């Protein structure tokens, strides 16, 4: 055996990220617009992933989506949490009593996605800035783990009777 051994290493570029596809339908089921955009995973989300995956931390078994109001929006920040996100507020102009659940399928090809859309039934006209993913379903709640935030490329206008249908994919 040679005194020089080759060191083999699997090269891996793990960069957790997500991508939203949002479709807006009017009250008659006609598609008004579609937008696809990436999200930022906040510090709390990355720390959750590391703790749950490598440090015996508690696993979140159910994730939920919320909408970000354009009114008063200044910015998303990596340090945002559900308890502290001074640059944005939640929009609650949808009929569902709680934040809708995001149900991911099994991981495959380094990603997970939902096979059934997450739907928001709008009950007022509003301008929506973006979307967030969290571990608690309470509308306007300030507890739970914030996983990610994302902004539309331009503000999304919705009217009473519209439905937002969201598909979200997380990959690494």
N-C termini distance: 38 Å
Element-by-element helix/strand order: EEHEEEEEEEE
| SS elements, strand count | 10
Output the radius of gyration: 18 Å
Specify the helix fraction band.
under 10%
SS class: mainly beta
In total, how many domains does the architecture comprise? 1
State which percent range the strand residues make up.
35-45%
- Outline the low-pLDDT stretches: none
Q: Provide mean pLDDT, rounded.
A: 93
If helices are DSSP runs of H or I spanning 4 or more residues, what is the number of helices? 1
User: What is the 3D shape?
Assistant: globular
Summarize the biggest pleated sheet: 10 strands, antiparallel
Please outline what is shown here.
It contains 1 helix and 10 strands.
List the helices and strands and how they pair.
Blueprint: E1 17-25, E2 31-41, H1 43-54, E3 63-69, E4 90-91, E5 101-102, E6 111-113, E7 118-121, E8 126-134, E9 146-158, E10 163-171
Antiparallel strand pairs: 1-2, 1-10, 2-9, 3-4, 3-5, 3-8, 6-10, 7-10, 8-9
């Amino acid at each position: 055996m040679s005194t020089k051994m080759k060191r083999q290493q699997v090269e891996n570029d793990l960069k957790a990220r997500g991508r939203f596809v949002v479709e807006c339908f009017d009250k008659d089921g006609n598609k008004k617009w579609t937008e696809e955009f990436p999200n930022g995973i906040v510090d709390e989300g990355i720390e959750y992933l590391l703790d749950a995956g490598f440090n015996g931390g508690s696993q979140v078994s159910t994730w939920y989506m919320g909408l970000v109001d354009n009114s008063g929006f200044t910015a998303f920040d990596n340090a945002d949490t559900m308890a502290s996100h001074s640059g944005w507020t939640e929009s609650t102009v949808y009929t569902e009593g709680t934040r809708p659940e995001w149900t991911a399928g099994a991981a495959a090809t380094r990603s997970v996605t939902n096979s059934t859309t997450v739907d928001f039934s709008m009950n007022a006209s509003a301008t929506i800035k973006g979307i967030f993913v969290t571990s608690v379903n309470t509308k306007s709640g300030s507890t739970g783990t914030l996983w990610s935030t994302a902004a539309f490329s331009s503000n999304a206008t919705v009217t009473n009777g519209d439905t937002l249908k969201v598909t979200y994919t997380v990959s690494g």
